[in-house]
Specification:
By secondary structure, the chain is α/β, with parallel strands linked by helices. It has seven helices and nine strands; from the N terminus they run ββαβαβαβαβαβββαα. The protein has a nine-stranded mixed β-sheet, sandwiched between helices.
Amino acid sequence: MIEGRERTWTVERAPSGSAGPLLVMLHGSLQDDKAFRALTSFSRLAGEGATLVWLNGLANNWADGRRPEERSGRAPPANVDDVRFIDAVIAEVQAETGTDPRRVHLVGASAGGIMALTYACARAERVASVMAFISAMPRSLLDRCRLAAPVRLLIVNGTADPVIPFEGSSFANPRRLAVPATSETISFWRRANGCPVEDGESRALPDHNPSDRTRLTLVTSKCPQGREVSLIRIEGGGHRLPSTRATNIAPAAVRMFGAQNHDVDASDLVADFIGLGPQRGSITQ
């Protein structure tokens, strides 16, 4: 019980004796932890030394402080504090598993990405990095966020996303969130981390699967090490996480959510950004 409510989460432990990183996994709207796990390959990171904790939002959504006009779908019940929920889960999992408190990373998709950014704004001193997929900061979060410490950030967004438009949208409907352009999240975070706002290097990543009709472009920052703010822009990508595994999705869903990139897997981007496995920054930095 947390704040008088039954809250649930699932832990995937790293191998015994590993004091590795903790990944806080935050699902998208209308999902739960089981759906998020089933649709992605993030679970494999437990075998590479990370402990993953998959949280469940109430009403399959997050209490992230968005205004009603910024939200689509159902909102959680009133007076829910998901920042405190994440606090409690992190404390419990760290006590049980011995994960490194300096290596707490948040991974979120869509609304889960917004919750990850919201938590980092409130608890920057406890967060090493945020990896937000198909997500961006809503205007209300841009207005109130004050980072107390630098937090590394990776944003992975598609330029043809119909749900979280890459160039922004001023109003929400049942299939679209009201968010500023992705560039505003990137600029805000670079300023907050004490970096120049201008892009660093921009380079195309290998197009391993030309048939998916998308391409990846990495845009780095001029931030010093430990404060990096990077964007992976999926040219032609929709509201779907990049994946190298086959995904069975109905044609109607493809029309609704757009194209999926198959050049790289989202789990590889996370591992690369936080330094798990052999690549260690070869993709995202």
